[in-house]
Amino acid sequence: MITLCPAVVLLVLGAMCLVPPFAGAAPPSITTPLFSVGVDQSQDPGKTTVVLQIFFLMTVLSLAPALLIMLTSFTRIVIVFSLLRRALGTMQMPPNQVMIGLALFLTFFIMAPVWQKINRNALQPYLANQIGHEQAFQVAAGPLREFMFKQTREKDLALFVDIAAIQRPQNIDDVPFATLVPAFIISEVKTGFQIGLLLYVPFLIIDMVVASVLLSMGMMMLPPVMISLPFKLMLFVLADGWYLLVGSLVKSFG
C-alpha cells in the first residue's frame, strides 16, 4: 500500500478542480499568435516624412560601398597599388588593410571638392527644406557627372552609347547616367593598368638582369626573386617611390 503525503493529495485535487472536464465536449484548441503588417492613416505628416527619410538613409548606406568604389577614384588607386606590390614581389607587403586604407584616404582627398559642392548645393538646401528630393538629386549629380566626364575616354563612352542604341548625345547633359557609369569604370580600369605597366618595367629589368647573372654563374637552383627583391626595394626606396607614385596618382585626376 502506497502512502501519500496530505499536502500532495491536496495539490492534485486542486489541479483537478481547475481543469475543465473533457467528457462530452471537444478538447480546447491551441491558439497561435498572429502577426500582420499594414499601413495606417497618420494624422501627423511629419511622422511619415521621418520614416521615409530613415528608409532612404538605410538604402543609401547599403549602396555606399558600391558607390564609393565605382563612382570615385578608388578603382584606379587600388589597381595601381596592387600591381606595384606584384611588381616588387613582396606579395603581402604592404598588407591589404594598409593598401585599402591608403586608397580610401586618397579617395577622400581627391573627391573632397566634389563632395563639398554636393553638400553645399544639394544636401544642405534639402535639409533646410529649400528644395525637394528630386531637385536635390539633380543638383548632386552635377559635380559627380563633371568629375566622371573628365576621367572618361570618349571611345569608352561611345561604346556604351552604341550598345544602348540611343541617339548620339549633343552634349554631356544628354548622356544618361546609366551609360556614363560603366564607361567611367572601364576607363579607370584601363588607366590603372597603364600606370601599373609603367611601374612593372624597371622591376622587370632588374629581374632579368639578376636571372642572367645567376644563370651565367651556374646557380640555376637559386630563385632569382630571392636575390632581386632587395635590389628592387633599394631602387624603390632610393627613388622615393611612394612620394612619386602618390603624387602622380593624385595629379592624374586634375
Written account of the structure:
This protein has nine helices and no strands. Mean pLDDT is 75; it is low at 1-26. Helix 3 runs parallel beside helix 7 and helix 4 crosses helix 5. With 254 residues, the protein is mainly alpha-helical. The chain has helices at 6-18, 45-70, 74-88, 96-127, 133-151, 154-164, 177-216, 224-238, 241-251.
Strand residue percentage: under 5%
Biggest β-sheet: count, sense, barrel?
Answer: none
| Number of helical elements | 9
Name the average pLDDT: 75
Shape: elongated
**Low-confidence spans:** 1-26
Radius of gyration: 34 Å
Distance between the termini: 101 Å
Number of strands: 0
Overview features:
mainly alpha
Describe the structure concisely.
The protein contains nine helices and no strands. The chain is mainly alpha-helical and 254 residues long.
Task: Note the topology.
Layout lengths: L5 H13 L26 H26 L3 H15 L7 H32 L5 H19 L2 H11 L12 H40 L7 H15 L2 H11 L3
